Amino acid sequence: MRHDFAGHGASRGLALGRARVRLPHALEMAEQRVPAAQADAEAQRLHDALEAARAEMRALREKLQGALSKEAFEFIDLHALLLDDPELVQALETLVRQERYSAGYALRVQRDRLAAVFEQMDDPYLRSRLDDLDHIIGRINAHLQRREPLPRGTAGEVLVCDNVAPSELAQLQAQGVVAIVSAAGSPLSHSAILARSLHLPLVVGAAEALARINDGDVVMVDGETGEVVVDPDAADLRRYQQREQQDARARRDLERLRSKPTRTRDGVDIALYANAESREDVARAHALGAAGVGLYRTEFLFLQRNELPDEDEQFQVYRDAVLGMSGRPVTFRTLDLGADKADRTGLSLANEDNPALGVRGVRLSLLYDQVFDTQLRAIARAAAYGPVRVLVPMVSCREEVLLVRRRLRRAVAAVKRRGVVVVTPPLGAMIEVPAAAIGVHGLVDAVDFMSIGTNDLVQYLLAVDRNNDALGDLYSPLHPGVLRLLAHVIGAGAQSGTPVAVCGEMAGDTRLAPLLLAIGLREFSLHPASLLELRRAIRECRLDSLRERAGKLLQARDRSAIERWLQEAVSR
Ligand code: PEP
Ligand code: MG
């Protein structure tokens, strides 16, 4: 029967497909008993699931050999031990055979018993092993629940899950997934950024998704509004077709702006750069007339693989991006692994209690000498094919920039010794750590350009995890503190003659263009999918009147005052 619910739109696009439900590890199983005659079969089902989970752990261990840290292997071994633990296995068997519980319900009962024991432990380390127990129970349950896979190729699939990692997105799309609905997640996560780049519709924070969608249901997903319709009726399908036609018309209208300049009504040219993660993004950026690539996220080349890309492989990817922009600059951001971009890479990353505050971005590059030097040499080689810039993520102090500059010069020298003719590319810093933003005066003479990463800057400034949906509206670039800090950085750039761009998702939010122009921004870097829309929004602005009203904007004391300012700006 038709029903609908909503999450948050995180990657635009409409999709219609059959649901593939991926259950989370958490177990919510209602009490269920099986008739005595079925107890043997149920016990066998349980043993098969246990055996499948064990085989999975063995395969995982083999596959990740050499690619994971010692700590990560310890986890795998601990999980394998738990799967053989008589405390678990025999108790489950007894529950199924004697109590005649279904295998799933037996799992839940035994999990709760063991959890009660864990929770009473004094040692916090042992207490925290409850997570491992849950992980294992979830794994066994996933095998118990496994049904016949949907027939391939008959329809696109909509993946319905608790959450999705950035590293699995491309693979899912290649498998025919046409949209994703996740119960958790946020539109600012790296998964959302990547989904937008792949043009894969994504709805996040749809808390009811797992409870209300079954495998094989037909689902209609709107990645813009966050609407999810299960079992759409004739009216929904008509609406779907109409929306598709409207979208096609809107795309045609926007297409007319392809060859137009990005110029305000009072004649000021604004530079629109593109963010890119792939060859396709570069091609689109070029076709849409982007001024260059303002942010090439190189880490995506390192994800979902067990070995590191070598210098040649990286060089070819970077060179193709440079060739793809035919003379317009390409800004390669050096590796920004860590935090939510670490789930599978060719590096042995240690588990950290606080990954967002840990070894990520430039910190990681400075720790892994060879990885960094290899990347810098690959970028330097690509610079022989056209203008290249190097952008350093997660800079928190001047010393880091100076160290990177030295390393970059060395890489260029090494490449020159091989006979390649290159100049040292301009070096820029991402301004995304609050200390770097506040202390920007200490950076301006050490860099050639700056790019504000509002995604992280907002998270660190407001102490709000960009991936935590539970914090809802608290994550907002429309906080007076955020705006003042942006104005401070942009002002410092203008004073010192250091170009400043914004490359976080805020730059691609066309609604916010008047605000960013008012505080002095002249360079935007955004995903190509929104480039023409931003061009249209900027062409409707008058810079002189926005600049006049900047004072009022910066005096705003709360988000609603900023929202009002924005409304007034567009109604003028
Ligand atoms: C940012 O933090 O705004 C940014 C552009 O970098 P990323 O989203 O890759 O962290
Ligand atoms: Mg960032």
Automatic annotation (TrEMBL):
SUPFAM superfamilies: Enzyme I of the PEP:sugar phosphotransferase system HPr-binding (sub)domain (SSF47831), Phosphoenolpyruvate/pyruvate domain (SSF51621), Phosphohistidine domain (SSF52009). Residues 155-226 form the PEP-utilising enzyme mobile domain. Its main location: cytoplasm. Residues 7-129 form the Phosphotransferase system enzyme I N-terminal domain. The keyword Nucleotide-binding does not apply. General (non sugar-specific) component of the phosphoenolpyruvate-dependent sugar phosphotransferase system (sugar PTS). This major carbohydrate active-transport system catalyzes the phosphorylation of incoming sugar substrates concomitantly with their translocation across the cell membrane. Enzyme I transfers the phosphoryl group from phosphoenolpyruvate (PEP) to the phosphoryl carrier protein (HPr). Belongs to the PEP-utilizing enzyme family. It is found in: Cytoplasm. It is an enzyme of class 2 (transferase). It comes from Pseudoxanthomonas kaohsiungensis. This is Phosphoenolpyruvate-protein phosphotransferase. One of its GO terms (molecular function) is phosphoenolpyruvate-protein phosphotransferase activity. It catalyses: L-histidyl-[protein] + phosphoenolpyruvate = N(pros)-phospho-L-histidyl-[protein] + pyruvate. Residues 36-70 form a coiled coil. InterPro entries: PEP-util_enz_mobile_dom, PEP-utilizing_PTS_enzyme, PEP_util_C, PEP_util_CS, Phosphohistidine_dom_sf, PTS_EI, PTS_EI-like, PTS_EIN. Its EC number is 2.7.3.9. Its cofactor is Mg(2+). Residues 253-541 form the PEP-utilising enzyme C-terminal domain. Keywords: Coiled coil, Cytoplasm, Kinase, Magnesium, Metal-binding, Phosphotransferase system, Sugar transport, Transferase, Transport.
